What does this fold into?
Amino acid sequence: MSYIELHHIGKRYGTKKVLDGLTLSVEKGEMVAIMGRTGCGKSTLLHIMSGIESMDSGKYIFDGEDLSRAGKAAMANLRNKKIGYILQSYALIPEMTAYENIILPLQMRKIIRDDTYSIVEKIAHWLEITELLENKARDLSGGEKQRVAIARALVIRPKVILADEPTGALDEESTTELMQLLCSLRKEGNTIILVTHNRDVAGYCDKTYFLQEGKILEIGE
It folds into this structure.
């Protein structure tokens, strides 16, 4: 059994069929890319995997647990404990410091502890953003904001990282740095699933899945 399994997933928005019997499996510790045209359902797929949205039909198995009929509370628990999400838009609060943005997931879960700052410091050191922790998010460059967004995703110590166009707003140098960071996370045992339009980015991944007409049509390795 694969670490993550999606079987015949269906999803509609009104009369529009976005995912149509999609089947996908991801092994533990893999980094995979999902490619496809704008509007083909890539982000919807990530939302279903994270529990942000529900599927209309099909089966979703995560680490041996069948989540097909899991309620909102169970999916929120999965997202809170095991899944880190990285967005293209960074989704940082401009008026807050990098540190304050990073610990937001912990505050929302009410799990701020005495060692929280030391945990953030370790992550920041690894991401080379220690000197940015007290800077306002609004004053950071695109590459710096993305590193802070990654730190925020990592602070809950997730098993799986979902990244929606994480390099879309970055220049070539920052893109290379980010992908090297994600490769390092994979080596640490994280499972990474990213949506991208960039074939060079997909080239860092173990597998590339192409999404078209709501289905996975082919796999590149």
Summary: The two ends are 20 Å apart (CA to CA). The CA atoms of residues 163 and 194 lie 4 Å apart. The chain has a mean pLDDT of 91. The domain at 4-220 is CATH 3.40.50.300 (Rossmann fold).
